[in-house]
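Journal club prep, shared notes

We agreed each person brings one worked example of a sequence with its structure written out as tokens. Mine is TRAP transporter small permease protein. I'm keeping it raw so we can talk through how to read the token line rather than staring at a rendered picture. Sequence first:
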Amino acid sequence: MNAPRSVPGPLSRAEASLDRLLDLMAMLSGAVLFLMMFLVVANTLTRKLFNWPITGAFEITETMLTLAIFLALAYTQKVGSHISVDVLNRHFSGALKRILEFSAPVLGAVCFGWATYASGLYALDSYAMAEQEWGSITYPIWPVKMLICFGLGALTLRYLLEIGIIAHGERAGAEDGQ
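Then the structure, token by token:
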């Protein structure tokens, strides 16, 4: 599915605001990936050269990977980089293509809306019980679960925005019948 373009209309301010947030989240995701790469290299070097691994590197890396993934989900949807199957779509008529174009974000909004709600409850439970990550280091895990919920919520908002854009006929290519 192609990413919607910004056009003047009732949703353009909402799209611009959400896009700024998604851009920031993507930059944070990239920064987390860079730091994770640095940590893995530093851990490997200290372990191989000095037989002194960085304490907690595994636990920190798994947390960083989770953050990098969930912070980038909505941005990936914004730019249209999620995997899509176009093999059958190119053989469908214009009306069927429009139905599929509308139903995909509706299904995404429903599924990821539910996932946002469920992960939010899970994060609140984690906070209430002061859940900890146990390993070579111990740290609270609920902030990571809250950020998972935040990332899923941003993806849900992106899907809802796409539904509005399609419903208002503001999707790129809507004018030429695509």
